[in-house]
Design brief:
heterodimer; A: alpha+beta; 4-stranded antiparallel beta sheet; B: mainly alpha; globular
Chain lengths: 112, 444
């Protein structure tokens, strides 16, 4: 099993969620985060005081998937979240040892 | 025959009464004050409007500009000052400012507002009941110290604030109010023109703010940390409430429901809008974008500058004052502040002191005899453009004396409190925010 973590632009959430549902991924965790990569921030000015804001709002999506689904999930997220402009985000994959469904006690693939 | 005699006797009596009535009146007791219901209704309203300027006007204007961790503490300052000054005014403030004593301070004759009743009046406002006048003046006494809070935002201890505000309102506000507005006051007798408080309120608060900013020092992280405003919508709402309330401040200073009040309202509106646009365009040209904070700050600068002039200038004068205030206060709040290096956090000095000085000096230039013509022994209130250049010098004296007394007295009060309990919060408190540390509350 793997955890696929994607940092995406916030307005892309609905598109990514719909696309993932379409390939059989029926759950995810979303966190509001701040970050930057190659996309520069912006400058705000308040009565002459300038503040350079380098952190931009992003969303972090985490889905737990079976190992044989990883490539499909990566390509689904990539095509849904892409705009072609700097700041589209990144995807990371982590190994997942155990998964448990709390309500029923099911484990591993049955819990995904 | 009898009825004819009676009829003639009655006629003679009537004529005699008509002829001799004035003589009778002179011998009788002085007439009770004649209250005017129009004036009274307007002044009751004005009192509410000016109170609204502080709570929630100023509270929102300021709290929206600070960081989230200090929003509650900033709003608390305006609210607490309102309550504290009300009580001090009741006990002694009103008496010190608005009763006869000397040219420098009033007396103790109305300690705890004794003598004030439903039928009494203050000599400065004979057509409205004294309680209304006392409360109206209270709202000015409230907003003046509340304005100072902008200068030391994010770093003052609450206990020190209360002591400072109490001492300042009695030792600085009351005397200056007496000098400028009471009949005995020496600045008033010199002919200083200050309709609604350019000197008493704005220069006073702004200079005191600068002293506090200098004595307490810059905020941690000033110049490096991101100190962006928590929510400028609050500030916009606050500025709007200030604008609307200011009609009570300026038009209400006519202390009557009459043409002077009407003209004061008109010039207030015109100057404010002009100043807002002036600041906005100045910022647009120099920084590239017209900001919300800029336009509302420009409006407040205009309100401040028209304050001393509101009863004396005409609409053209208002336009001039508006442009001057917008541009000069923009410069003072951005460039001057950066050049000199003080941390006047919310520009109490840049907007209120500078705006007040601009307005007070321009009053000397732009006062129109047509708006305040001579009546009886009182000369017309005219400025340079009406052939009275001496008024400019008189205004300068008023500004200079207010500035010097305020600066010195405020410095002393600050230093004394600093020595006894300390003015500034501890660095950890400042870093983590005043809301939780001083008040045990936070915005979620």
């Amino acid at each position: 099993m793997k955890i696929v973590m994607a940092i995406i632009k916030p307005f892309k959430l609905d598109e990514v969620r719909d696309a993932l549902t379409g390939v059989g991924v029926h759950g995810m965790t979303v966190t509001e985060v701040k970050g930057y990569g190659r996309q520069k921030g912006h400058t705000e000015i308040y009565r002459g005081a300038e503040y350079a804001v380098s952190f931009l709002p992003k969303l972090k999506i985490e889905v737990a998937v079976a190992s044989n689904q990883v490539d499909k999930v990566i390509s689904t997220i990539t095509s849904a979240a892409k705009t072609g402009q700097i700041g589209d985000g990144k995807i990371f994959v982590f190994g997942l040892d155990t998964a448990v469904r709390i309500r029923t006690g099911e484990t591993d693939d049955a819990a995904l | 025959m009898n009825s004819k005699l009676l009829y003639r006797a009655g006629l003679i009596a009537l004529v005699a009464a008509a002829l001799f009535e004035p003589a009778f009146a002179e011998e009788a007791a002085p007439a009770a004050p004649k209250l005017d219901t129009g004036d009274t209704a307007w002044m009751l309203t004005s009192t509410a409007l000016v109170l609204m300027m502080t709570i929630p006007g100023l509270a929102l204007f300021y709290c929206g500009m600070v960081r989230k961790k200090n929003v509650l503490a900033t709003a608390m300052q305006s609210f607490a000052v309102t309550c504290l000054v009300t009580i001090l005014w009741t006990i002694i403030g009103y008496s010190l400012a608005f009763t006869s004593g000397s040219a420098y301070i009033g007396g103790m004759s109305q300690f705890f507002l004794t003598g004030m009743g439903t039928g009494t009046v203050n000599d400065l406002a004979k057509t409205i009941p004294e309680p209304v006048y006392a409360m109206y003046q209270l709202t000015f006494a409230i907003i003046t110290p509340a304005l100072i809070c902008g200068a030391f935002a994010d770093r003052m201890k609450f206990s020190a604030l209360l002591w400072f505000m109490g001492a300042w309102s009695l030792l600085v506000y009351c005397p200056i109010a007496h000098w400028v507005w009471h009949g005995d006051g020496f600045l008033s007798s010199w002919g200083v023109l200050d309709f609604a408080g350019g000197t008493v309120v704005h220069i006073n608060a702004g200079v005191a703010g600068l002293m506090a900013a200098i004595v307490m020092g810059k905020r941690q992280g000033f110049g490096t940390d991101n100190m962006a405003p928590y929510n400028l919508v609050y500030s916009l709402v606050g500025a709007s409430l200030l604008w609307v309330g200011w009609f009570g401040f300026n038009a209400g200073s006519a202390v009557a429901a009459n043409g002077n009040a009407g003209m004061a309202m008109a010039v207030t509106q015109i100057a404010t809008a002009m100043a807002a646009l002036a600041w906005m365009f100045a910022e647009w040209m120099t920084r590239g974008k017209p900001s919300v904070l800029g336009i509302i700050s420009g409006a407040v600068a205009g309100l401040v500058a028209i304050t001393p002039a509101s009863g004396f200038v005409d609409p053209i004068g208002a336009l001039v004052i508006g442009i001057a205030a917008g541009v000069i206060c923009y410069w003072a709040s951005t460039s001057l502040k950066k050049m000199v290096g003080y941390d006047d956090s919310l520009d109490a000095f840049g907007v209120h002191a500078i705006g007040g000085i601009v307005g007070a000096m321009l009053t000397g230039v732009l006062a129109r005899a047509a708006i305040n013509p001579a009546s009886g022994e009182t000369p017309a209130k005219a400025g340079l453009i009406d052939g009275n250049p001496g008024q400019v010098l008189i205004q300068f004296y008023g500004v200079a004396i207010t500035l010097i007394y305020c600066a010195v007295a405020t410095l002393i009060i600050l230093k004394v409190i600093d020595l006894i309990i300390g003015l500034r919060v501890k660095p950890e408190v400042e870093r983590d925010g005043l809301d939780l540390a001083l008040h045990g509350e936070t915005i979620h």
